[in-house]
Specification:
The complex is a heterodimer of chains A (112) and B (114). Chain A is an all-beta fold and 112 residues long. Helices cover 0% and strands 55% of the residues of chain A. Classes of the chains: A mainly beta (112), B mainly beta (114).
């Protein structure tokens, strides 16, 4: 059974600091996704990672994928208040009939 | 519209009542997904349509849940005889191509069963 675990589930940090959110998954995955969700809003796609060693960056966010370790990281550089949101990772694979299996989310609060 | 639209945004139902939740995907999108998101949790897959064909309904939690997309565009998720454990946000997503790449989500319908 494909399982996805995020760590930490809750993170409070100061503006200007760096931090990393971790996403572990249990079996071989075809694709790994990072989404952002603001309270009461849609899920917004941030990154899709397709292969080992993939790295994608958008502004202060950078995502990477290590398929051998079954680990993806979402790194936040010099955090700013408007990055406060809940961040989800999700994976799909043949094991899940190619449907997305989601982590529980990391609620990120960035204090000004 | 420009995005995925869901209605109603909020629904309060008495236990035992039937409800219908609507999803208008982005025009031309082939794939449509329904997810259930409990408070403080990640979404959980319910069902998947490719055009009008329901290709995967393995996530529907019971036979009280039924989804359709008769003309390959608008979809309806129906829950019969609602129970308190059905309280959640129901999310709809659509994508241009089959399966998950570049899926766009609606804002969801928050269902509260009292």
């Amino acid at each position: 059974e494909l399982k996805v675990e995020q760590n930490p589930l809750f993170l409070s940090m100061q503006e200007g600091k760096n931090y990393t959110i971790y996403c572990n998954y249990s079996t071989t995955s075809d694709r790994l996704y990072w989404y952002r969700q603001d309270p009461g809003k849609s899920l917004e796609s941030l990154f899709v990672l397709l292969s080992n060693g993939a790295v994608k960056q958008e502004g202060r966010l950078m995502a990477s994928l290590d398929t051998k370790a079954r680990l993806s990281t979402l790194h936040i550089t010099a955090a700013v208040h408007d990055l406060s949101a809940t961040y989800f990772c999700a994976v799909d694979s043949m094991d899940s009939n190619y449907q997305l299996i989601w982590g529980a989310g990391t609620k990120l609060i960035i204090k000004p | 519209g420009a995005g995925v639209s869901q209605s109603p945004r909020y629904k309060v139902a008495k236990r035992g009542q039937d409800v219908a939740l609507r999803c208008d995907p982005i025009s031309g999108h082939v794939s449509l997904f329904w997810y259930q998101q409990a408070l403080g949790q990640g979404p959980e897959f319910l069902t998947y349509f490719q055009n009008e064909a329901q290709l995967d309904k393995s996530g529907l939690p019971s036979d009280r849940f039924f989804a359709e997309r008769p003309e390959g565009s608008v979809s309806t998720l129906k829950i019969q005889r609602t129970q308190q454990e059905d309280s959640a946000v129901y999310l709809c997503a659509s994508s241009l191509k089959p399966m998950n790449t570049e899926a766009f989500f609606g804002q969801g319908t928050r269902l509260t069963v009292v």
